[in-house]
Amino acid sequence: WVLTVTAQTPTNIAVIKYWGKRDEDLILPINDSISVTLDPHHLCTTTSVAVSPAFTHDRMWLNGKEVSLSGGRYQNCLRELRSRAGDVEGEEKGIKITKKDWEKLHFHIVSYNNFPTAAGLASSAAGLACLVFSLAKLMNVKDDHSRLSAIARQGSGSACRSLYGGFVKWIMGKEQNGSDSIAVQLADEKHWDDLVIIIAVVSSRQKETSSTSGMRETVETSMLIEHRAKEVVPKRIIQMEEAIKNRDFPAFARLTCADSNQFHAVCLDTLPPIFYMNDTSHRIISCVEKWNRFEGTPQVAYTFDAGPNAVLISHNRKAAALLLQRLLFHFPPNSDADLNSYVIGDKTI
Ligand code: DP6
Question: By Cβ atoms counted within 10 A, which residue in 134, 195, 197, 336 is the most buried?
């Protein structure tokens, strides 16, 4: 027999960034972060997990290619899930898995991203969240989303925020064992649904410095990171929560852009410096800044993760349509900029 579960998880984009760990194994961050989860059907990971007594070891295929599961992160997630697994009875007669059986059983996992992997589009977030969620369903783990977020966190920090839709806060927590480092939902997906997110794919190539090693180097060498984590982010988190609660787009945009810029500033303050953005990214920033200044009030917010692609958040469909026009004007298809636009959230634009 084979039992399978399939799940789909959207990616999330941080508007107040997570950068830096206080514990590398448990993946505990040095500051809180806030993200927005994208619509489930746009940038997402689909994962099927299967269990069978015929499987002799755990195997995983990502976008059709087999990948190794020997890493500590996967093993940590699996250990946590096994310790919480329940009894399962299959629909067909005769399938009965007890809590103890999970220790010996192995999984086959097939996962697809519908967007470029490791190009700074937070693919690990959707991937690990989906893996933990689908395995939890298969293994009849009864924990709520917050507890599951603490498991997904051990796969990849940003993954813990993808367990919820809408606006999500990852609370850094204080405990050494990480039990209070969990994600909570600040507002659901309906709360501010006139926002439109456009991702300008500047490059779909794999990034040179992974987030994991980049943030390690920053913590080891940057003098700015401590100031950011201790002084700047705590205040910004409070202001961002307020902006989200009040659907205050000017405040939201100001905080989002400032936090993205500071994140890239600490990358530059790292030794050796890390450059995630390229010339096209910088041109997009200038274009948005000029437009916002011209209008007198922000129309669009930009944020860049560990790669050159721009995530642009506009406050309504009209602003998003104008933004797309501008992007196409400044970065025409087939120009050197290699820009393909993905429209998220509203297909009619
Ligand atoms: C820039 O979650 O990919 O996207 O925890 O080492 O797996 P690990 O790192 P990861 O880092 C994401 C960094 C970021 C900012 C963010 O998503 O908050």
Answer: 134
Residue 107 CA from chain centroid, whole number: 24
| Centre of ligand 1 from the C-alpha of residue 54, in Å | 36
CB neighbours of residue 67 within 10 Å: 13
pLDDT, tens digit, 9 for 90 and up, residues 308-318:
889 999 999 99
* 209-229 as b/e: b if 16+ CB within 10 A: bebeebbebbbeebebbeebb
For ligand 1, the distance from its centroid to the CA atom of residue 233, given in whole angstroms, is 16
Q: How many residues does the chain have?
A: 349
The HSE-up count of residue 246 (CA atoms within 13 Å, CB side) is 11
16 within 8 A of 236, measured Cβ to Cβ: yes
Ligand 1 pocket, residue 17 CB under 6 Å: yes
What are the pLDDT digits (tens) for 211-236? 999 999 999 999 999 999 999 999 99
Which one of 158, 260, 266 would you pick to mutate in the ligand 1 pocket, going by the greatest count of ligand atoms within 8 A of its CB? Answer: 158
User: What is the Cβ-side half-sphere exposure of residue 135, based on CA atoms within 13 angstroms?
Assistant: 31
Judge if the beta carbon of residue 211 lies within 6 A of ligand 1. Answer: yes
Given the structure tokens 């030794």, which residue do they identify? 271
- Which tokens go with 122? 């937070």
| The ligand 1 atom nearest the CA atom of 13 | 17
Tokens, residue 317: 């469909």
- How far apart are the CA of 70 and the centre of ligand 1, in A? 21
Contact indicator for 37, 164 with CB cutoff of 8 Å? yes
Tell me which of 326 and 207 has the higher pLDDT. 326
SS3 state of residue 57: coil
Task: Give the confidence band of 201 by pLDDT, cuts at 50, 70, 90.
Answer: confident
Check if 259 has its Cβ closer than 6 Å to any atom of ligand 1.
no
- Interface pTM (ipTM) of the complex? 0.99
